[in-house]
TrEMBL record, chain A:
SMART domains registered for this protein in UniProt: FeoA
Gene Ontology terms for molecular function: transition metal ion binding
Name of this chain's protein: Ferrous iron transport protein A
Record has Iron as a keyword: yes
Length: 79, 718
């Protein structure tokens, strides 16, 4: 299955996190929000100008800018 | 210019975090939890303290302290900043962690949100690794119930090995059980037996090698920090923890060469097994979250519910690509319209009452044969300024502030940050700056304090320096009054609507200037790229309307009255003295105003207006009253009971629409008030940044007013 950066996940789609390429504090922050390898993420909506995007992570709504989201590689669920 | 911890407020927060609570006999209780779990509401309900709780992440940044009694014992409750973790990635996390480690609380209460159990349990596990004396408070039970979420509290307590209490703090439910649980853990009635998170075999081996040594060291220090927890932190190369030991206990934990060597050896062993520090961290966090997932699966049961879809329907509108900004403007407009329309009547009534009382006071003075100058100082100086501040400034503030608080408690502000983030990103600023700006609407000093939620020092300074561009509650009445008098011709509802539009145009301009100046700052003195941005949008919550109305009305009224007495009254006295002491045939006031006049004229103002801004340094509320005082002291005396009377005075002194416009622009863009500047000094710890915060908006105002005034004159518009 092909990996895709989270920022390219279409709105309304769900995917599973496979790789986190962020480092240092950002990596830690993402993981503290419960975003680890294997976590399900749903792209909920985009902001006015297309950035940031709102994601549903473990029941919480978290907005990420595309710079951060692009560091998270996900595998899209096939329906 | 270096961005040291000193210059960005770290020092201040560290100082505050060392709460002095170790009084004999008192039981110290730390209150921890994720942001937006209603932690502050729990705090307020237990202590009866009136700390305001907004519905946005990061409202509490410092430790607030309160007391309550239970079973004959005195409990000191310390509200820690809301954090997702205690790994000291940010200032808030460091403050919270340091308090649990070194503040030596007898009990730590962790407030969790049952609707996001997995993420909340992550924090619970981290705290259980640090201290066994924990009570878990599952708050927002009512909200969970509405969303069809059931939590098996008994089961959770059995698994965690500590008491678990369900509460709905907003409704005051479950708080007695919480007090009971805290008491029973504090005095050992409940024997805690906390769950131990097991990591991979290799990691456990590594911990086993260094833990005995650390345990001995802690015993020698008489320190109750868990040696297992400390071993894990040292293994993952946590620098902050060693520094914290130096800071709070004055010891260098690496003084022992034995520990250093063992740590080194163990790390090498891990690397040989293919586990670098980075991977170790990942494995630790992942293990916690997997455990949280597992526990959550066992205790949380969900039924499908319609509530979530209502939230998302509201968000469909409020954060929509098409309707997001119009909805935001409409909400803002509605707030101003209500403020302008609603403030009129109480203003008139107050003004009439004050004028009536003034006549009585004058009669009293006449009857008592008091000297004329005393009557002048007290009535024309102190009393009149005071009554102006109260009657013109109080009503709009008392109406706008609760409306704003309502939006804040609903959870709308993070949506504003979400909508506007891209603009801030392009200005190389932080998305949360939108939140701090929103706070600036209430009070710039509060906005500056709110900047603590921004982790990156560079972006925090930008947010602090530009916060003053947002007009605070003390400047709204000025904008509203001038917009109503000079911009909005006609009468009735049309006038209110035009005034609303003018004020909103001013706000839009303020946001635009904030973005522009932020961009300029990040290209010059505060160079850098935007840092990472993670923002949680909390669920909408029903605000406690009555409580907000009563409390903010009271708060605002008391605040304005206090300001009127401490700032406006002395200012009135100074103005009266200046207007009545003559040197070389002219009063001091006219000398001063005359001196400023040529420069002020270039900016479309006059000497008196500029002088009012300068004398209004202690508080923006008194600027317009000072202008009026100065005009009236020159002779004309009218009954000031309505805006038309105000207009008459201003027009008599040469005001045109351009004067009003420039005064509004200068009100938006000038030096922060005294309180805000002191706050900036405190938050940045540096006079240099305070000076910059003074200069930047002032220069903006001067340039803007100059360009507008000269252009209008050149085009012959006036």
């Amino acid at each position: 299955m092909e990996l895709l950066p989270l920022n390219l996940l279409p709105i309304g789609c769900t995917a599973r996190v496979r790789q986190i390429n962020a480092h240092g504090a950002l990596r830690r922050r993402l993981m503290d929000l419960g975003l680890i390898i294997g976590t399900e993420v749903k792209a909920v909506r985009k902001s006015l100008s297309g950035d940031p995007t709102l994601y549903e992570i473990r029941g919480a709504m978290i907005a990420l800018r595309c710079e951060e989201a692009s560091k998270i590689l996900v595998e899209r669920f096939v329906l | 210019m270096g961005l040291t911890g000193q210059s960005t407020g770290l020092a201040t927060i560290r100082r505050i975090s060392q709460v002095q609570v170790q009084l004999s006999g008192d039981i110290v209780v730390a209150l921890a939890g994720n942001p937006n779990t209603g932690k502050s509401t729990v705090f307020n309900s237990l202590t009866g303290l009136k700390q305001h709780t907004g519905n946005w992440p990061g409202k509490t940044v410092t430790n607030a302290c309160g007391r309550y009694g239970y079973n004959g014992k005195n409990f000191v409750l310390v509200d820690l900043p809301g954090t997702y973790s205690l790994m000291a990635n940010s200032l808030e996390e460091e403050v919270a962690r340091d308090f649990i480690c070194f503040g030596d609380p007898h009990v730590t209460v962790v407030v969790v949100d049952p609707t996001c159990m997995e993420r909340n349990l992550n924090l619970v596990f981290q705290i259980l690794e640090m201290t066994p004396k924990v009570v878990v408070c599952v708050n927002l039970m009512d909200e969970a119930h509405r969303k069809g979420i059931q939590v098996d509290l008994k089961r959770l307590s059995d698994i965690l090995g500590v008491p678990v209490v369900g509460t709905s703090a907003l409704k005051g439910q479950g708080l007695d059980r919480l007090k009971e649980a805290v008491w029973s853990v504090a005095c050992g009635r409940f024997s805690v037996n906390p769950i131990k998170i097991e990591y991979d075999g290799v990691i456990e081996d590594a911990v086993g090698i260094i833990e005995p040594q650390i345990s001995r060291l802690m015993d020698n220090l008489g320190c109750s920090i868990s040696s297992r927890w400390l071993a894990l932190r040292l293994l993952e190369g946590d620098q902050a923890i060693a520094e914290a030991f130096k800071r709070y206990l004055g010891t260098d934990i690496f003084a022992s060469t034995d520990l250093r060597e063992r740590l080194h050896k163990t790390r090498n062993m891990l690397v040989e097994q293919g586990i670098t520090i980075g991977q170790l961290r990942d494995r630790l966090v992942s293990a916690l979250i997997h455990n949280a997932e597992e526990v959550s699966r066992q205790v949380v049961h969900r039924k499908e519910s319609a509530i979530n879809s209502i939230d998302s329907k509201i968000d469909d509108l409020l954060t929509s690509r098409v309707w997001g900004i119009p909805a935001m403007l409409a909400l803002l407009g509605l707030m101003f319209w209500i403020t302008i329309e609603g403030a009129n009547y109480p203003s008139q009534i107050l003004a009439k009452a004050f004028f009536h009382l003034e006549q009585k006071l004058v009669e009293l003075f006449m009857a008592s044969d008091a000297p004329e100058w005393l009557c002048g100082i007290l009535i024309d100086g102190v009393y009149r300024t005071l009554s102006w501040v109260v009657s013109v400034m109080l009503p709009p503030m008392a109406i706008f502030f609760p409306l704003f608080t309502l939006l804040e408690d609903l959870g709308y502000l993070p949506r504003v940050a979400f909508n506007l983030d891209n603009f801030f990103k392009r200005a190389c600023a932080h998305g949360k700056q939108a939140l701090t700006m929103c706070m600036g609407f209430g009070c710039n000093a509060a906005g500056v304090v709110a900047c603590r939620i921004i982790d990156s020092p560079r972006e925090r300074l930008i947010a602090i320096i530009t916060n003053n561009y947002v007009p605070c509650n003390g400047r709204f009445p000025t904008l509203i009054a001038l917009a109503t008098i000079f911009m909005a011709g006609g009468a009735g509802w049309l006038q209110t609507i035009v005034a609303t539009l003018v004020v909103m145009a001013m706000i839009t301009l303020a946001v635009g200037i904030t973005l522009l100046i932020s961009k300029i700052l990040s290209r010059t003195v505060l160079r850098g790229l935007p840092s990472s941005f993670v923002l949680e949008l909390p669920p909408y919550r029903k605000p406690q309307v009555c409580k907000i109305l009563v409390r903010s009305l009271m708060d605002r009224t008391l605040f304005v009255l206090a300001r009127a007495v401490t700032v406006a009254a002395p200012a009135g006295l100074v103005i009266w003295v200046m207007a009545n002491v003559s040197v070389a045939g002219d009063s001091l006031l006219s000398h001063f105003a005359g001196f400023l006049d040529p420069f002020a004229r270039l900016l479309g103002l006059d000497g008196y207006i500029l002088m009012a801004f300068i004398l209004g340094l202690p508080a923006n509320e008194i600027v317009i009253p000072i202008v009026l005082m100065s005009y009236m002291s020159a002779g004309t005396l009218v009954e000031l009971d309505s805006l038309s009377a105000l207009r008459q005075i201003l027009v008599e002194h040469g005001w045109t629409w351009l004067t009003a416009l420039c005064t509004m622009l200068f009100s938006l863009n000038h030096f922060p008030c005294g309180t805000t500047m002191l706050t900036i000094r405190k938050e940045t710890g540096s006079w240099k940044w305070t000076l910059l915060s003074f200069m930047v908006p002032t220069i903006t105002g001067i340039v803007l007013c100059f360009v507008v005034a000269q252009t209008a004159r050149l085009l012959g518009l006036v």
